[in-house]
Amino acid sequence: VTVNMSAARRSGFLVQVLVQRWHPVSFGNTSYIHTGCVMEAARKGTRAKADAKKKASKKEEVKKEFIPLKKRLEMQQTGGASPRRKDDHLKDPIDNVWISRFYKWQMYSVRDAIAMHRETHHETQFNHSNALINAYIELDMSADKKNRYIDNFSNVIQLPYHFENEQQRTVLAISRNEEVIEQAWQMGVTLAAGLDVVKQVQSGEVSFQDIQHFIAEKDTLPDLVPIRGLMKRRFPSVMNGTAGSDIIPIIERFIKGVEYKTTTDKFHHDFATIEAPFGRLGMTDEQLEENLSALLNDVENQKPQKKSDQLITLVRLRTVLGPEQFKIYHKVYIRERALNVKVAAS
Amino acid sequence: QMLRSGLQGLAGLHLSCPAWAVSRAAPRTLIGSHVENKACAGPLLQQVRTTFILKRRNRVELVKAHKALGSRKLKNRHFIYELVEDTNCKKRKPVKVILMTSVDGLGSKGKVVEMSPFKARNQLLLQGLAVYASPENLEKYSKLLTEASKEEDQPSSEFARKTAEELSQKVLSISMNLDQPWQLEPWHVRVAFRKAGIYLPEEALTLPSQPIIGPDLNLQGKEFLVRVKINNKEEAPVRCRIHHFATNPRERIPWVYRHWELPAESLFPEEAPLLEELTKKYHRTRYPDQEEEV
After folding, report:
1. Could you write out the three-class secondary structure of chain B?
2. Which chain A residues are within 8 Å of B252, Cβ to Cβ?
3. Do A98 and B163 touch (CB under 8 A)?
4. Each residue of A147-187: pLDDT tens digit?
5. Is B184 in CB contact (< 8 Å) with chain A?
6. Which of B76, B66, B79, B71 is nearest to B35 (CA)?
7. How far apart are CA B79 and CA B77, in angstroms?
8. CB contact under 8 A, A127 and B198
């Protein structure tokens, strides 16, 4: 065994023994470092142990899909505090002159609220004595089960006392009867037609895109099935209140009535609001009260079976001009729930 | 003997001396070799003024019945504690005090008020504005309330003075029609106050002696004074400005950014000095001419 002294001197820390073996096959087979451990397999038990450890520590790679930063930040939004105003910590005023932001919102009767709105819309001030008066309604959309909510809904209601509401709807009326069609045109529908409307739509003469409401006689419904796809959710049905044996009252309701729809908060799904007009300041107090009562009862009737509590939490009266809103005693106007025809979700 | 065994079996521990309360920076597991622990004489009904409630991590073994309690030797492991509760973090119960003088926002002289103990001490008790509502004190100062009502310089209510102060800083914009003829009446001013969020009856208002008739664009943006009387006692002057409102949106007068911060000309010359005073008193008043110079 010869020792390569020069090599040993060159390397600092180890004395490397050059082992020259007289190997008949591999003549220049010399190795400085014992490399046998790499080439030889470890004991079976050691191998098994290493494998088991590796398997245990192996984590499943979850494939994360790429979400752009903007969307990721949006997903992290929680919407902050609930939009519902809490004033349990506030008290009622004790002085005759008081600043409202330190006290609870005062509740007024409908007559008082209307009188106050009339003051601001007087000739000497806004000069808008026949302005529309809106009801701002806050709803509790949570169902009985936790984290379950009611869907958005909408309805067109005909109020007891008619007034010029600045709402316009596109309505299509379908009937077999010529007289009915004639009457429908006079009432002011966008389009009134018989069963030939099916062929007209299929050929492209008439477009269903812009029409918001479809009203049809009950007997005509099976004939309308071929064009059902064009109407989708707007397809008339008896349950919806858009189909019936006599469509004249239905048309009247859609032309003259007031439409309201709920808007749910993006993050707080139990909070929804409705803003709908129920009269004009020129009308008498009794008429306005009756209209409001009809509106509130209709909204309350939209409550499905899966909710047992009251739907409406708050009602404020406000107008288009002016910042004032007056909270009213709404519970007085809501009657016991009647078994009306339920209008389906929008 | 049962008691003793019960005691010794206690895992819970109350440190009876707050002077040795461990600092908050300490980790949850505490090794308090400098802390004294006294075994309680009876069941844990004693009132202890503790700030930290600790629990031993390692159980202390029972001492044999025939041996003395004092022979129980505590080892290092027995001095390792875990924090159960920090009584500093608990919400304090409010404390009742009797007011000696009328305090804005709280009440009049002689009123019993409930407050957080820190606030009560720092704001009232230390300054001598109030006294603890102990049974003796309640008896002693029971006549304060009746005495107070006889005094004249007492405020009409706890909020009246503050309301008066806030009103004197306000600039009220009264919207009157641009096309229809009108004369300023108390109800117009009342409605303007209501739109601004201030509710008051017409009896509380005193309009200027000279009538204001319009529509008159010379009146636009000029100030006059209206006096408000709160609870028939406190008086507050409020600056008012007429704003002409046109029903037709096209005719409307353009909006001036935060017009209430800018000084305005006085409508009636006799009111000018007081108006100037109020303008200066309002901390947000801007003088654009001066600003331009700078």
Report:
1. CHHHHHHHCCCEEECCCHHHCCCCCCCCEEECCCCCCCCCCCCCCCCCCCCEEEEECCCCCCCCCCCCHHHCCCCHHHHEEEEEEEHHHCCCCCEEEEECCCECCCECCCCEEEECHHHHHHHHHCCCCEEECCHHHHHHCCCHHHHHHHCCCCCCCCCHHHHHHHHHCCEEEEEEECCCCEECCHHHHHHHHHHCCEECCHHHEECCCCCCEECCCCCECCEEEEEEEECCCEEEEEEEEEEEECCCHHHCCCCCCCHHHCCCCECCHHHHHHHHHHHHHCCCCCCHHHHHHC
2. none
3. yes
4. 999 999 999 999 999 999 888 889 999 999 899 899 999 98
5. no
6. B79
7. 5
8. no
Lookup: tokens for B138: 């309640």
B134–A contact, CB cutoff 8 A: no
- All residues of chain A having their beta carbon less than 8 Å from the beta carbon of residue B160 are 95
**B155 with B108: CB under 8 angstroms?**
yes
In order of A155, A339, B137, B167, the CA distances from A304 in angstroms are 14, 11, 60, 49
Judge if ipTM > 0.90. Answer: no
- Give the number of other Cβ atoms within 10 Å of residue A341's Cβ: 9
Chain A residues within an 8 Å CB radius of B191? 116, 119-120, 125
Smallest CA–CA distance from A321 into chain B, residue? B247
Span A291-340, pLDDT tens digits = 999 999 999 999 999 999 999 999 999 999 888 999 999 999 988 664 44
Least confidently predicted of A65-79, B37-51, B225-239, B279-293: B37-51
**H/E stretch holding A186:** helix A178-187
Chain A residues touching B219 at Cβ < 8 A: none
Q: Could you tell me which residues are beta bridge partners of residue B80? A: B31
3-class DSSP state of A149: strand
Residue with tokens 């005693």: A329
CB-count exposure of residue A269 (10 Å: 0-12, 13-18, 19+): middle
Nearest to B188 among A106, A124, A323 (CB): A124
pTM, two decimal places? 0.73
Beta-carbon contacts of residue B63 (< 8 Å; ≥ 6 apart): B4, B8, B69, B71, B72
